[in-house]
Amino acid sequence: MKLNNKIGIIVDSFGVSVKEGLKKAKATGAEGVQIYAVSGEMDPAVLIGPKRKELRDYIDSLGLEISALCGDLAGHGFQDAAANPAKIEKSKRILDLAVELGTNVVTTHIGIVPEDTNSPIYAAMQQACEELGVYAKSLNAYFAIETGPEPAAHLKSFLDTLTTNGVSVNFDPANMVMVTGDDPVQGVKTLRDYIVHTHVKDGIRRRPVDPRDVYGFLGYDAMSHEKIAEMAGNGAGFEEVPLGAGSVDFSAYFAALQEIGYTGYLTIEREVGDHPEEDIRQAVKFIQSFRG
């Protein structure tokens, strides 16, 4: 196997400012970057006017591309019909920003898709994703749902109910391994028609966990990235570990991506650990080892 996919890094994983993170990503050997665009300096309401061109020019000057923006608004995703109009509006503005910065992918979490397809929560999520999908399609772009909260087959059945593929998939193999125990290789094949972006991350499942404890659920707890990072760090139920040290079979996973003809980015995410920069540097080398 000889991988040809470009390597990306989530700049926020470095724990520094965007510009410093971009410099570190370049120095580490990345060809592209993913950036959170929800709050702070990257919030679409803050990064306005000439600031957008300045950022794009700076990224270009480093010889980098943006593989995707992260537009994950956390909370209950799109499970709460009353909260959805504001979240949909902000998501659209993040997508507008993405397109202006030169990428057509915004990754997000939508909340756990309920098993009961007749539930009000399922209907709220379906309605929100339909509107977002139509909007994304109008820009030749995608909102990409991150895998993990539910099995791949159930996510596919949900996506199949939408009228466009404007809502597609950001495939994260570690989330599947750590939370649902789903098989990433089979997951790639199941979701083959929807995968537009991927994360490269590794993890171990210590014991079965309730996905609601991790990703939240309406009427239950809300999702929080800080809480997920804490859970992935303490290792009680599952643990995120450096690439190659966990349960993801990357040889088989990369082969499955090749088999379905995926040519997009392999974007490194490191949400925990005391030495993220070193872990990311090693992750780049790990992926490069598959390039032959």
Q: What can you tell me about this protein's structure?
A:
The structure is a single chain. This protein has helices at residues 18-28, 50-61, 84-101, 120-138, 152-159, 173-180, 184-190, 211-215, 225-234, 250-259, 276-288; strands at 7-10, 32-36, 65-70, 105-108, 142-146, 167-171, 195-200, 202-205, 238-241, 266-268. It is an alpha/beta fold and 292 residues long. The strands form two sheets. It has an eight-stranded parallel barrel with strand order 1-2-3-4-5-6-7-10, surrounded by four helices. The chain has a two-stranded antiparallel ribbon with strand order 8-9. Helix 5 (152-159) links the parallel strand 5 and strand 6 (167-171). Helix 7 (184-190) runs parallel beside helix 10. The longest helix has 19 residues, at 120-138. The chain is globular and about 50 Å long. The chain starts with 6 loop residues before the first strand and ends with a helix.
Kindly estimate the percentage of residues that lie in beta strands according to DSSP.
15-25%
**Helical segment count:** 11
| Extended strand count | 10
Structural class: alpha/beta
Helix content: 40-55%
Distance between the termini: 7 Å
Average pLDDT works out at 96
Calculate Rg over CA atoms: 18 Å
Spatial strand sequence of the major β-sheet: 1-2-3-4-5-6-7-10
As residue ranges, the low-confidence spans are none
